[in-house]
Write a structure and sequence with these properties.
elongated; mainly alpha; 74% helix; single chain; 2 helices
C-alpha cells in the first residue's frame, strides 16, 4: 500500500510540475503538454483520495 501511495504522490508532483513549467507557453504543443500534466494531476489525486479511504478501483461497486 505504501508503494501505491508513493507512486501516486510522485505522479501528482510530476503533473503539477509540468503545469508550473509550461505556464507561460501559449503554443498548441504547450497546451497539449499542459493537458497531459492536468490529466496526471486529476487521476493521481483521485487515486490518492481513494487510497486514503482504503478503496481501490477494483473494489468499487
Amino acid at each position: 500500500m505504501k508503494k501505491y501511495v508513493l507512486i501516486n504522490s510522485i505522479v501528482l508532483f510530476i503533473g503539477l510540475l509540468i503545469i508550473i513549467i509550461m505556464r507561460e507557453d501559449t503554443t498548441i504543443f504547450g497546451g497539449f503538454i499542459k493537458l497531459i500534466g492536468l490529466s496526471f494531476t486529476i487521476v493521481s489525486g483521485f487515486l490518492l483520495i481513494l487510497s486514503f479511504f482504503g478503496l481501490k478501483l477494483n473494489r468499487l461497486p
